[in-house]
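Long-time lurker, first post. I've been practising inverse folding by hand and with some scripts of my own, and I keep getting stuck on stretches where the structure tokens seem ambiguous. Below is the full token string for one chain I'm working on. Before anyone asks, I'm not after the true native sequence, just a reasonable design that respects the backbone. If someone could post their per-position residues I'd love to compare against what I wrote down in my notebook.
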């Protein structure tokens, strides 16, 4: 619960750096290609949230995480040709619960939730081109 938008800069920057180190040293494309692209998408989502700070737009980081995970699992399902529809449905249900809780807590507006959802979804979907 950071009260000011500018207080998000350092944590988001640290997130990008630590995730970059993780995919460079541990989760390499040769060893874990699916996780590599998931974390690469995570860096993309974090960069979007970071860039939006400079135009005074607050994206919900909770929604970024939930939508990134949901669309990664969808991509994983397609990649491995698995029918995990109940898992995917559960993730969308949990995403709705998270969004509702953020609204009830008055931590975000609907627009911030939508922006966060899109910021988490877009990098994952765009990276499907490379690994599906």
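-- Answer (accepted) --
I ran through it position by position. Result:
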């Amino acid at each position: 619960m950071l009260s000011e938008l500018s207080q998000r800069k350092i944590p988001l920057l640290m997130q990008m750096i630590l995730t970059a180190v993780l995919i460079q040293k541990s989760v390499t494309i040769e060893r874990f290609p699916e996780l590599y692209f998931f974390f690469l998408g995570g860096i993309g989502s974090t960069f979007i949230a970071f860039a939006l700070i400079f135009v005074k737009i607050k994206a919900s980081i909770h929604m970024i995480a939930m939508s990134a995970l949901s669309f990664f699992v969808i991509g994983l399902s397609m990649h491995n040709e698995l029918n995990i529809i109940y898992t995917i449905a559960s993730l969308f249900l949990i995403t709705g619960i998270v969004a509702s809780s953020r609204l009830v807590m008055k931590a975000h507006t609907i627009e911030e939730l939508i922006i966060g959802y899109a910021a988490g979804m877009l990098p994952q979907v765009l990276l499907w081109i490379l690994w599906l």
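A couple of notes from the structure itself: Residues 5-131 form one domain. Helices lie at 9-25, 33-53, 61-80, 85-104, 110-131. Happy to go over any region you disagree with.
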